[in-house]
Amino acid sequence: MNKIISLFLISIIISSCSTLEQSIDQLYKEVRSSSEYTVKENETLWSIALRNNTSPRKIALRNNLKKPYVIYPGQKLNLSNLESIESKITTAIKWKLPTSPSIKQNREGNFWYLFNGEIGDPIFATRNAKVVLSGPVLPGYGNFIMLDHGDSYLSLYAHCKDIFVTKGEEVLSGQQIATIGSSEINQPTLKFQVRKSGSPVDISEIKFN
């Protein structure tokens, strides 16, 4: 009897741990785990694509969405057969560091750089570009900037404090565009990503100069 009770308790503990891990990872697994996804309040194709490491264009094509790709809360999206991007892009492009070289760099998965600085540390444009998004436009990413570099490459800057550029503005490589903040994150951090044709580039392919 004691052995049976012990096995029962162990199964509960294992189940609880599994549930906890699933809860922690829910943000990223939610989209992948179901072929049908229900759009939540304030979500966009970009926010869903970012969490699924894919491109908004793939989601739009899969669901026959037409430009400007407007989605609404409660809408059902088919996300079956959307493969996570494992970018094999090799490029000689050199990217300027998006912040001070003295700031510690970390990685989050294969597609995000994390720069753990201080509130107010500068954020720079990595190359010449046009601003296509600016402000708190994607839930979960705080004050956010997206730059279009004109050659199918985009660069993304999340959790900014102050933003010094607006949508449609042209910026130069090395120009300060924002400061590091902690909007929608626990500590001052710049979350940085590069995308090629809408899909994330593996950070091992990104070379800073």
UniProtKB/TrEMBL annotation:
InterPro entries: Cell_wall_metabolism_enzyme, Dup_hybrid_motif, LysM, LysM_dom_sf, M23ase_b-sheet_dom. GO terms for molecular function: metalloendopeptidase activity. It comes from SAR86 cluster bacterium. It comes from the Bacteria. SUPFAM superfamilies: Duplicated hybrid motif (SSF51261). It holds the Pfam family LysM. Residues 35-79 form the LysM domain. This is Peptidoglycan DD-metalloendopeptidase family protein.
